[in-house]
Amino acid sequence: MKPFVPKLVYFEPEALSYPLGKELYEKFMQMGIEIRETTSHNQVRGIPGETELARYRNAKSTLVVGVRRTLKFDSSKPSAEYAIPLATGCMGHCHYCYLQTTLGSKPYIRVYVNLDDIFAQAQTYIDERAPEITRFEAACTSDIVGIDHLTHSLKKAIEFIGATDYGRLRFVTKYEHVDHLLDAKHNGKTHFRFSVNSRYVIRHFEPGTSSFDARLQAARKVAGAGYKLGFVVAPIYRHDGWEQGYFELFQELARQLEGVDLSSLTFELIQHRFTKPAKRVIEQRYPKTKLDLDESKRKYKWGRYGIGKYVYRDEEARELEETMRSYIARFFPSAQVQYFT
Ligand code: SF4
């Protein structure tokens, strides 16, 4: 697929006092994209659209260039000590995406130009924990790879972490636009993961993202560039024929990765889950979705802030985990499964 190009761009005036802000302004001017001003990236007004749905769709192709003022990083991630904030929002239309609820009424895509401040904060966290390793996740609130061809912020973050002793970077993507990252000086400190799924899930629930084959081609390139490679299988979803669907996924992964050095390959396994607020939003935004959000078929798991999640019942979750682990053992015997959740 073609790399993402926004239809409309907003700038915070202050963003123009940073080199990346200026560079992006020039770039979008030359591309002939409409540019508007916004006083704050947290409060963008006037995104066009007659209905809420139309405004939502337009917001997903609107880019907002701003200055990140909250420099405290979120630290509640299972796979990393901190989330490094390079961008917020995504142009994809995955029906199950948790950003639908976490970003609420602000689904537009925000990128931050004060990278030096963000990296200085990351360095502080690294120093506090040294000589322990500090891991940063760059894809908690966006699919950063899919946006990065415009900003190269991720590339700079890869090189920043590559130059540290105790920092590590990780992110996950459904996009194929990795070419500019291949020559980044990562020094083996970045863990590059691709999100993959059964053919059924990709076809029905992941519009607006790269195809499976394109993701795999990108994965080959990334492995060739010496990055540590991983796959996040998420959300693992019990559709009709899921056993066969996921079998084919791993079979196809093995086929397409033939000849690639997989000695440090990892898998992360995440079963499908949803919250009640997410269900409401999904039904509004993707009213024809086939996604099964029937609470009565699930187990309720208490969550933080009183918002519990609906996950598969124990028996079904166990079956999912055992099946995925058996496929991985068969096709990738030396890979490490980091977790099932
Ligand atoms: S690609 Fe990732 S971040 Fe983007 S919509 Fe899909 S699940 Fe959400």
From TrEMBL:
<dbReference type="InterPro" id="IPR049539">
    <property type="entry name" value="SPL"/>
</dbReference>
<dbReference type="InterPro" id="IPR007197">
    <property type="entry name" value="rSAM"/>
</dbReference>
<protein>
    <submittedName>
        <fullName>Spore photoproduct lyase</fullName>
    </submittedName>
</protein>
<dbReference type="Pfam" id="PF20903">
    <property type="entry name" value="SPL"/>
</dbReference>
<dbReference type="GO" id="GO:0016829">
    <property type="term" value="F:lyase activity"/>
</dbReference>
<dbReference type="InterPro" id="IPR034560">
    <property type="entry name" value="SPL_Bacilli"/>
</dbReference>
<feature type="domain" description="Radical SAM core">
    <location>
        <begin position="76"/>
        <end position="304"/>
    </location>
</feature>
<dbReference type="InterPro" id="IPR023897">
    <property type="entry name" value="SPL_firmicutes"/>
</dbReference>
<keyword id="KW-0456">Lyase</keyword>
